[in-house]
Structure formats: C-alpha cells, structure tokens
Amino acid sequence: MEFRMLSAMLPANGVLSVPTGVCLIDDLPAEADYELRLGSGVRCKFILHLGPQSQRIRRNVVFSLLGENSHLDASVLIQAKQNQCIEWRGIQRHLIRGAHSNLLIKSTVCNCAKISVFSKIIIDPLAAESCANFQNKNLVLSDRAHAVARPELEIFSDDVHCSHGATIGGINPAEEFYLRSRGISSRIAKIIIRCAFAEEILYQMPNGNASFH
Amino acid sequence: MSKKLPMDEEFATPGNFSYATEYAHDAGQGLSEETVHYISKVKGEPKWLLNFRLRALRIFNAMPIPSWIPVDLSPLQFDKIRYYLAKGQEPKRKWEDVPAEVKATFDRLGVPEHERKFLAGVEAQFDSEMAYANLRQSLAEKGVIFVDSTEGLLRYESVFRPHFGKIVAAADNKFSALNGAVFSGGSFIYIPKGAKLDQPLQAYFRINAERFGQFERTLIVVDEGADVTYLEGCTAPRFESATLHAAVVELIAMPGAKIQYITVQNWSSNVYNLVTKRGMAHELAGIRWIDCNIGSRITMKYPCVILAGSHASGEMVSISVAHHGQYQDTGAKMIHRANHTTSHIVAKSISIQDGVAAYRGMIKVAKAAKNCKNYTRCDAMLLNRGSISKTSPTLDVSGNLSQVQHEATVSRVSDEQVFYLQQRGLGETQAMGLLVNGFLNELMREFPMEYGVELKRLIEMEMERR
Asked: I need a labelling partner for B420 at 20 to 30 A (CA). Which of A60, B49, B169, B356 fits?
C-alpha cells in the first residue's frame, strides 16, 4: 500500500482523526502533546525524529485504535547529544477488536545527554484479537550519557498477542573490531555503526526531513 | 472417557484449618508504644533493641501509605490487628515435646516428615514465636547458627547486630518500619567461612489466630566461600477478616559466598502479604531468589539484589498464579554498583478468572559500574476473558559499557493445543492443566523435587477451580 507523506496535519496539542493511507511526519517544535485516533480499517504510518529541535524536548503521544482492523506502524528516532534532555511518553491504546499497532523507538545518546522513554500498551477488555508490539533500542555512546526505558503493558483481554522489548547498551566491540580489521579507523567505525543503527528509521523519512543529527 | 481430577476439599486448601489454643502472651489489638514495650519486655530485650523498635514505630506512624500502590488497602484495619501472640514456649528440639495442637498443625502440613527426609535444619513458627527449632548436630559443630530473631540478637549479638537493619532499614518503606517495630520470630542464620551445606535449611510460618499480623524477620549472613539453601513455606486458615503479613528478609553474601532463598507462598485469601526482601552480594558472591506466589489476597513483593562487589551475580526466578479476587504484584530489583556484575530475571505469571498478575521491576546500573550485564524475561498467560496482566519494568543505565535487555510477552493457551490434547482423550481441564504446567515447567525444576511435585498439584487444583 502506498502512503502519502503528510507533515502539516499534526496539532501541537489536541486530537487528530487520522485518514487512511497517510504517513504522518511529526516536525513540531520542542514540546507537544497530542492524540491520534484511528478509525475502522484505517492504515497509517507515523515517523518522528527527536533531536534537532531544542535542548529540552518532550513528546507525549497517544495512539488510540478505535476502529476494527485499524493498523498503525510508528517509528521514532531519538538522537541526543551534548547536554540535551529528551523525553518520550507514548501510549498504544487498543479499544476495539482486531487492531494492530507496532511502535519502534531507536535512540542514540552521546556526550552528557539524557533520554527517557516511557511507553505503555493498553488492551481494553473489548479489544480481543488485538496485536500490539513495542520495541525500544537504545545505543549509549559515552560514559556520561544516561538512558532510562520503561516499557509497560496493561492487558485486560485474554485473546491478544502482545510483546515488548527494550535494550540499552553500547557499541558491540566485535562489530567495531570487524570494521577496524578492514582498515577503518575507530572513529569512522563508530560513525558507520551509528548510521547503520539509525538507518532503519531514517530511510523512511522523505528527503529533506532526513538529517543525521 | 476423560476423568475429572478428584476435588478433595482438604487438599485443595491444605492450610485451611485451625485449632483452638490459649496464648500466654497477647499484646492486644492495635499498635502503640505500649505494644512495643510489651513485646520487648516479654522477650527480655536490651535497651538498644527497644530503641530500634520505638524509632521504627515513629517512622511507621509518620509515613503515609505509598500513593503508587495499585490496590485498596483499606480493609486492613491497623487498630484491629493483634501484633503479638505467643504460647510462652521456648522452641523445642524434638517434635514429641511440641504442644499437642501445635504439633498436630505441623504434622498435618507435613513439616516433620520433610525434616526426616531431606532437611539439614527446621524452624516452625506458630503465630509470633518458634515452636520447634532443630539443626543437625554436625552442622552446629561446624559453627552454623540457625535460631530465631530473639535468640539471634540476644545470644549471638556480636554475629548479627553489625548486619541487623543495614540492608533493609526501618525507614525504607512503611511496612519495613512496621516490621521493625513489632518483629518476632523468623530465622537468623550464620554460615561460617568455607562451610557448604549439602541439604537445605527450612522455616515454616503458620498463622493460627484470626486478625493476627505476622511480622517475622529473617537475616542470613553467609561468610566467605560458604553457601546455603534456605526454604520457607507459609500458610494460614481462611478467616473472614483481613490479616497482614509484613516480613523483612535481609541476606548478606560475603565474598565468594552463595545464597539460594526459596519461598513457596500459599497464604489464604484473606492475607495481605506485603514483604521487603533484599540481599547484598559482595565480590564474586551470588544471591538467587526463587519465589512462588500462589496464595494471599494481595501480594506485593520485589526481592532485590544489590551487586556491591565486582563479579557478583544476582538471579530471580518467579512464578505467580493469580486466581479470582487475587492481586499478585511481584517482581525483582537488581542494582549494579560494581564492575562486571551480572543479573538474570525470569518471571512467569498466570491469571485465572479475574485475577491480576503484575510484574514490577527495576534494573539500575550506576555510573561507576562498567561491563555489567542484565537479561530479564517476563511471560504472562491469561486463561479467562476477565483475566488481567500488567508489566512495569524500569531500565536505568548510565554509561556505554553495560548491556541491559528486557522482553515480555502476553498470551493465552492456544485453542489448537487444547484441541490436540482433547483429541488424545484428555478432558478440557486436564489439557489446560498440562499446558499450564508445561508453561511453568522450566521454572518448577528450580525447586527441590518434593516442592516441585507439590507445586504441580497445587496448580492443577487451581485449574480445577478455573
């Protein structure tokens, strides 16, 4: 299915009923709270890049799947450096049967930056046959960086398939060694690994919005 | 033709009985300084211990109930609970010397039989005090100490006082403060350097009286290079009124020591089980919590390991079963404070009918700790339409040299698997029981065989009630 890229639709605060077939790009300023509602049969994508906006960034997003067979694929890339403080709070709320939601959050944290990723999946008692997944991967790149992850689940229906996973760690020494054994310096090897880590989400962004922060 | 499992009421609720008995010491209902003075006087405690209790009482009175608690604790009427009830006995060394109704209680629960078959030492607590305490002579000669809290602090003060209240301070939380004020019974254990016990030590806690709170305090100190396995079991009869169990467990594993602490909790459905358990592992030491929660009305328990020395390890294996009306809020905390420390958590939960099974965890890697590793896995199974599962882990990592991983899944019993077993002639209940036991099997193997078998039967009984 083809998705139309739309960046102008999102409110900084408030609620948006999402039409089907769109890929929403969040290019809002540093702080924003909003809710996205997906009706019956709506399929949409969501992409967010946090990092270039400001020193302190906060996003509070609720994804409400209100219609049967609604489908959401959301990707968030967080790149924090220097003394930045970035906080993400997200809720995937399944209120009706047959909905699917996938949320992937990848973050890189350098220098003295700090990130907090709080995310919750809530499955209502009426939301049988729901499928919800959440993945959070955090790459910490300096000894003074700090990452906090809190993935939560609240499941009130038995006929569901839900999973979440979170990892926090540094660059794999074996991967760095592999590149260095090919004649690449340590500094460039780390940049290559960082780029590869972020690429999964960056390549989804249209040209002009993709910037390696 | 499929056979239904026998519904033996007595087996289904093995602890649901009580005997009328008289108590020589009764602190009365409610909690005040007079209660604390009474307990301290009956035990003949020194001044420092009385002051510890009074300070804990002041902290308890000053602290509010934490706002994050997800359940309603209002049925717990602190002014109606009896905080100390004892028959006035010294713990006996032979079962024949234990008072008749107390012995009948523990005979019925199988405790003397277990001691004969496979234990190195046993303590059996009846309400506030130990009724029976015995340690194999060979271990006593090696310098192993296995006594209750009163004897530990009075007779072995130099051994236990330096560690008492250091891992779980009275001000840690409201219920550790309550325990600090009125604790009684529990196990104080010291394992000397290099001693390896090839059989476990066990304590069994039994609530007999209605509206009674049990506040045992356990302190296990394992010296360098030694190891110990400790088992604790607990039951109570089912009364209408709410009962409180607020225990504190402190473990200290000195360099190279290993502690394995196994709990099978099967309190009756009126018990509020609010427990603080924490261990400190020094260099090259290991602490392993193996926790099974089947009973109680509400359980809130988060065993913790502070990894304070390099190459220390912490492990948690947890099974919880939340049936109708139960709220099992369990989890684990691992605090990495030194380099090259590792921790591993596996938690499996089952929710039946409208039971709530929640996992709450914390993994913290301090800034100074390098090359630490953690892996956490939580799996939840929901058996009925109204069953509820919650997961709330927190990963807090400083620095780029450590690796922390967490994963969780929630699922139900597959209809295809049930159908497959029914095709082979099993009834639906048997099939569900088999699949649930299969889900828990890898963790049940961590328990001693006798407990593993008992656990399987208890879970099958829970499935009968589904």
From this structure: B356
Tell me whether residues B383 and A158 touch, CB distance under 8 A: yes
Instruction: Name the residue range of residue B429's domain.
Output: 417-466
In chain B, which residues have their Cβ closer than 8 Å to the Cβ of A148?
394-397
CB contact under 8 A, A158 and B396: no
Query: Residue B11 falls within a domain, yes or no?
Result: no
Give the domain-ending residue among B398, B416, B434: B416
Residues of chain A whose C-beta is under 8 A from some C-beta in B?
125, 138, 140-171
Q: Rounded distance, CA B39 to CA B380, Å?
A: 43
Alpha-carbon distance B250 to nearest alpha carbon in chain A (angstroms) = 28
Burial class for A183, CB neighbours closer than 10 Å (0-12, 13-18, 19+): exposed
Question: In Å, what is the CA distance from A207 to each residue of A5, A49, A202, A210, B338?
Answer: 11, 13, 10, 6, 45
Report the distance separating Cα B415 and Cα A128, nearest Å: 15
ipTM value for the complex: 0.90
CA gap A193, A147 in Å, rounded:
19
Task: State pLDDT tens for residues B240-293.
Answer: 566 888 999 999 999 999 999 999 888 888 889 999 999 999 999 999 999 999
Note whether residue B6 is domain-resident. Answer: no
Q: Phi/psi of residue A190, each to 5°?
A: -65, -40
Q: Identify which of B374, B404, B406 has the alpha carbon closest to the alpha carbon of residue B391.
A: B406
For residue A162, list chain B residues with Cβ-Cβ distance below 8 A. 409-411
